[in-house]
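Hi all, posting the design record for the shared folder.

TITLE: backbone redesign
STEP: 1 of 1
STRUCTURE INPUT:
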C-alpha cells in the first residue's frame, strides 16, 4: 500500500495546529478536503488516526507516528529546495581551474582563497600546467576555466570564450638590494655578468626571457638554477643575487613586495593581456559565473594599478 507523501505532510499540519480549519488555512486548502483525506487514509489502512469527538484533535499512536513521518518529509523537501537555491546562487559545487604556475602561485591561488571563505560546500581543483596542455584540457571540458596570457591561445574564437582581465608586462627581477639595482644605467654587459634562473623548458617564460634579453643585446647567460616551481624560483631570488624574467604581477604579492624588485630597465614590446578562457558552447554554471565575477572584482580591488579590460585583445586569429 502506497501513501502519498503530501497526505503525510497534511497530517503533520493537522497534528501541529490542532484543528482542521487552522491546518487548512496554513496549507492553502479547505477543511472538507482535509477531512476527506483523513477518512480515505483511515479506510485504506484500517486504522484510526485521531481520537473521536475531541477538540483540539488528538492523534492516536499511529497518527502520531505518521505525522512524524510527515514532518520529516516536509523538512527534507525544504532542505532540498535550500540546496537548489545554494547551487543556483553560486554557493556550492565543484570547479576545475587551470593556470600556468606563476599565475597559480601569485594571483589565482589568492583569488580562490577569498572566493572559498563564504562557500564551505564548494570544492575547487587548481591545476598548474603549461600550454598547450591547458588549452587542450579546456577544449575537452576537463577544465571549467583557464586563466592565462591570452596570446598563448591558438584555437578559434568559435571554440573558446575569452574575457580579458588585465594587462601586464615582463620585468627583470632580483633582490631589492641587488647590486645592479644601484646602477644608474644597466648595460647588456652587466646582464651577461649576472647569474640567472631559468624557467621550465615547457614554460613560455623561458622563450619570453630569451627573446627579451636578446632584444636588449644580451648574447650569453650563466644559469645556476632551473625549476618548474614558482615558489622555488621566488625563494631562490630572495636568497641569492640571481636574476630572472617574470611577469610583473608575480611581484604584486605580500611575500614578494618587500624582498624583490624589478631592475630599472625598459623592456619594449612585452605587454600581454591576461584573461579567463572557457569552452564557447558550454552552459555556464552558477558557480562558474560567481567565480568569474569574483575574479573580476579581485583584480579590480587587489590590483588597481593594472589596466582593466586590456585593449590588446586576445591575440588570436
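Okay, here is what came back for every position:
SEQUENCE:
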Amino acid at each position: 500500500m502506497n501513501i502519498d507523501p503530501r497526505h503525510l505532510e497534511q497530517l503533520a499540519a493537522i497534528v501541529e495546529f490542532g484543528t482542521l480549519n487552522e491546518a487548512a488555512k496554513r496549507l492553502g486548502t479547505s477543511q472538507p478536503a482535509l477531512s476527506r483525506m483523513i477518512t480515505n487514509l483511515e479506510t485504506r489502512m484500517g486504522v484510526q488516526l485521531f481520537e473521536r469527538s475531541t477538540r483540539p484533535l488528538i492523534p492516536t499512536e499511529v497518527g502520531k507516528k505518521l505525522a512524524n513521518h510527515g514532518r520529516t518529509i516536509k523538512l527534507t523537501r525544504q532542505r532540498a529546495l535550500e540546496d537548489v537555491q545554494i547551487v543556483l546562487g553560486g554557493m556550492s559545487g565543484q570547479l576545475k581551474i587551470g593556470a600556468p604556475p606563476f599565475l597559480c602561485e601569485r594571483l589565482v591561488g589568492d583569488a580562490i582563497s577569498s572566493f572559498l571563505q563564504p562557500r564551505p560546500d564548494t570544492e575547487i581543483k587548481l591545476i598548474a600546467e603549461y600550454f598547450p596542455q591547458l588549452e587542450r584540457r579546456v577544449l575537452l571540458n576537463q577544465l571549467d576555466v583557464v586563466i592565462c596570457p591570452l596570446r598563448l591561445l591558438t584555437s578559434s574564437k568559435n571554440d573558446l570564450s575569452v574575457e580579458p582581465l588585465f594587462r601586464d608586462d615582463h620585468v627583470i627581477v632580483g633582490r631589492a638590494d641587488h647590486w645592479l639595482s644601484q646602477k644608474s644605467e644597466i648595460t647588456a654587459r652587466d646582464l651577461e655578468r649576472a647569474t640567472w634562473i631559468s624557467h621550465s623548458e615547457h614554460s613560455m617564460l623561458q622563450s619570453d626571457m630569451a627573446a627579451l634579453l636578446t632584444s636588449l643585446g644580451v648574447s650569453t647567460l650563466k644559469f645556476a638554477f632551473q625549476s618548474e616551481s614558482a615558489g622555488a624560483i621566488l625563494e631562490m631570488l630572495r636568497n641569492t643575487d640571481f636574476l630572472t624574467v617574470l611577469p610583473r604581477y608575480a611581484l604584486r604579492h605580500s611575500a614578494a613586495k618587500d624582498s624583490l624588485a624589478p631592475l630599472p630597465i625598459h623592456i619594449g614590446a612585452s605587454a600581454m593581456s591576461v584573461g579567463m578562457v572557457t569552452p564557447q558552447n558550454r552552459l555556464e554554471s552558477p558557480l562558474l559565473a560567481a567565480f568569474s565575477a569574483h575574479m573580476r572584482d579581485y583584480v579590480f580591488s587587489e590590483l588597481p594599478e593594472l589596466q582593466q579590460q586590456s585593449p590588446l585583445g586576445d591575440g588570436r586569429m
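COMMENT: The CA atoms of residues 169 and 270 lie 5 Å apart.
Let me know if anyone wants the other runs.
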